[in-house]
Amino acid sequence: MLLIPSYLIVLTVILLVIPAFAAIIVRFLIYNYLLLLQQRVRRLITRESRGEQPHIVQKLERRFQEASIDLDHVNTAA
Prior knowledge:
Structural class: mainly alpha
Mean pLDDT: 83
Strand content: under 5%
Number of strands: 0
Low-confidence stretches: none
Shape: elongated
Radius of gyration: 27 Å
Number of helices: 2
Helix content: over 70%
């Protein structure tokens, strides 16, 4: 004969233990993501190599360079 009913044990595990483990995992993932962002920002501050850029960033930089070359032709009629 148990002093604690089995449904209370199940509810405790479902409502307390599982969310606690989930919170620990989420905190660990957020911490790692913040470390990654810190490395990126530190590279920008110290003017080191930016490393591998996402494809969209490379495309935007290329479009900006192309637009900067054609900047003299913009608004010349005005």
